[in-house]
Design goal:
19% helix; 4-stranded mixed beta sheet; elongated; 167 residues; 11 strands; alpha+beta
């Protein structure tokens, strides 16, 4: 059985969403990960420890992803990123079932918005750094998705939300 959890980041309260478009992932989203420090590898005082740390999601996004800071969303063309998933290992039928279910769930929870699952790499998690005797041996590395869930024409939905708030 395969479990597809989507982007594994957030603060202590969970994943962060845009204040201007509640269904879209926030640009202020952080990834949390552990940096491993290994010192005195051969000596009698061998020790290793992990340091819990974090970095902004924008540190790891690919070049084709835009950042709309004003509306606090990550974008692909005119669409805002909602989540990303690794569907590697699924056959075409399983992929279609997952895709349809995800789109349906999000459209039911966000009436008037249209969602689309597209193929593409986007960070869904981070592997931390390995630092041996105060020298970085391995940099932090993003774990990438196979598909990205987007809300289409996100600017239209932000404008409608702003008008509703003024009334």
């Amino acid at each position: 059985m395969m479990l597809c959890t989507g982007i594994s980041c957030g603060d202590l309260t969970g994943k962060r969403y845009s204040e201007k478009l509640a269904c879209a992932l926030s640009t202020k989203q952080d990834f949390f990960y552990i940096d491993m420090f290994v010192n005195d590898v051969v000596g009698p005082n061998y020790s290793h420890e992990g340091k819990f740390t974090h970095k902004r999601i924008s540190t790891f996004i690919p070049e084709f992803v835009g950042v709309d800071e004003e509306n606090e969303v990550l974008t692909i063309n005119d669409d805002a990123i909602v989540d990303a998933y690794d569907f590697n290992g699924l056959d075409d039928t399983e992929l279609e079932l997952f895709a349809n279910a995800l789109v349906q769930i999000h459209e039911n929870n966000n009436p008037g918005c249209e969602f689309e699952l597209i193929p593409g790499e986007f960070p869904i998690g981070i592997e931390g750094r390995l630092i041996v005797n105060d020298k970085v041996r391995k940099e932090e590395k993003p774990i990438l998705s196979s598909h990205i869930l987007c809300v289409k024409d996100y600017k239209n939905h932000i404008e409608k939300a702003a008008v509703k708030q003024k009334k």
